[in-house]
Amino acid sequence: MRWASEIAQRTQAQLEQPDIQLKRLASLDSAGPEDLSFLMPGRTPQTQAGALLLRAEDRGDYGGVCLIVDNPYLAFAQASALFDVDWRRQTGIDSSAQVHPSAQIGQGVSIAAGCVVGANVVLQDQVSLGPNTVIQQDCQIGAGSQIAANVTLYHSVRVGLRARIHSGVVLGADGFGFAPDNGRWVKIHQLGGVWVGDDVEIGANTTIDRGALDDTRIESGVKIDNQVMIAHNCVIGQNTAIAACVGMAGSTRIGRNCTIAGAAGFTGHLSVCDNAHVGAMTLVAGDIRHPGAYAGGVQGARPMQDWKRNVARFNQLDQLAKRLIALEKKFTD
């Protein structure tokens, strides 16, 4: 349960009605008298929610507790932290965990059942490791980071402060590097690591390979969805967001404040500038040098408006073909 006044403080909202206790954060349709919800700008507040995060001008005839904010969606994100279940178990090391004597364990660290922590690992204060997570030798995990169950960090991976890494993530596996030699492949041993900045979130079953020589780098504030593949020596700029099933070949460099929609692909050894937005299932086969929105399938990324015009013309092809056949018939008769 959370008091409306506590939520108002967290979201910097103006509380306009008497303070009440709220059981959960819910959608407009499912919310009841003990629930909090939020109203997107311009919508009608038709809900049974006991309290709403909304703009003053959208209040209408809503009779519940109003928490007035400028940006209801942002306030919803801030309020969600108050209702989330904390991954952290009781602090301490479970008796079934294996922790190397050389590992440095900070204050308030939680290491769950079945974990393995290798030699010279550093776990700073308030780090939490979920069940069966493996942290190999020479890794460092920054203070306040939460690592879920069944995560694997290969050797020499660095994770910054307040990371949130979901189940099934693998950081630091070998990059896909082989040299041809008369019909066979010779492995290029991957000698770099993976470096992850502060406040990074990595979704379930995402894999980020270690660099061949230099580190693969995920800079601070990056948000990565589930089932993303980031190959060796890629660099992801600050505050970029990457949706599910994106694949990046080696040495792709993504700028700051970019958004990459689901299932987009990058052919590698290319650069994307800051503030670029790549549409779903777009193939990026060359550099993107100018900010803006880009989309396209197998024909490659191009400015979003150009791609929309091409799609419209493609949908007209059958009609145009019939007209062309009719004209040919008219002039040959």
Kindly describe this structure.
- The structure is a single chain.
- The chain is an alpha/beta fold and 333 residues long.
- It folds into two domains: 2-83, Udp-n-acetylmuramoylalanyl-d-glutamate--2,6- Diaminopimelate Ligase, Chain: A, domain 1 (3-Layer(aba) Sandwich), CATH 3.40.1390; 92-308, Hexapeptide repeat proteins (UDP N-Acetylglucosamine Acyltransferase, domain 1).
- It is 14% helix and 30% strand.
- The protein has four helices and 40 strands.
- A twelve-stranded mixed β-sheet has the order 8-11-14-17-20-25-28-31-34-37-39-40, with helices on one face. A ten-stranded parallel β-sheet has the order 9-12-15-18-21-26-29-32-35-38, with no helix packed on it. Strands 10-13-16-19-24-27-30-33-36 form a nine-stranded parallel β-sheet, with no helix packed on it.
- The chain is flat.
- The model has no long low-confidence stretch (mean pLDDT 93).
List low-pLDDT spans: none
Which architecture of the largest domain would the CATH scheme give at its second level?
A: 3 Solenoid
- Name the average pLDDT: 93
Oligomer status: single chain
What fraction strand? 25-35%
